[in-house]
Amino acid sequence: MNTLVKYLAIFLVSMVPIVELRGAIPIGLNPAWDLNPIFVYIVCIIGNMIPVPFIYLFARKILLWGKDKKFIGKFFNWCLIKGEKGGRKLEAKAKKGGLFVALMLFVAIPLPGTGAWTGTLAASMLDMDFKRSSLAVMLGVLIAGILMGLASMGVFGAFGAIFM
Fold it and tell me: Which pLDDT score is estimated for 31?
């Protein structure tokens, strides 16, 4: 597989809900792929952020429209519930003016279901300002990318070996 195809693959994986860059960075940093870690990070960040404006502007409207449709209703309801739960968690954790930081940290946690997709949907459900929520999501994605990169390169395992 040529290098451009590998970068395209991690770019596309970064755009997939739930997986996002949390799955794409370990793929891109696989030693067999021999890709530049800085370029992997940049490509995954860009791929993860491209859906954000579309999610913020359109996802809630589409999900509300489709929640009672025959074939897609269950999935759309699941997405709405996930977004509402994420929004409630953010509100509960955020103090006055702290919603920005809470959203950023929520997205920064490198676990499935806490990424840019869920964070942006939660921000949309909470009617957060588009620019502020996008910035919070982007900072969270940057932090999650760093954490995933370090984990993929074995840094946390090395710390464990040193301190155990």
Answer: 93
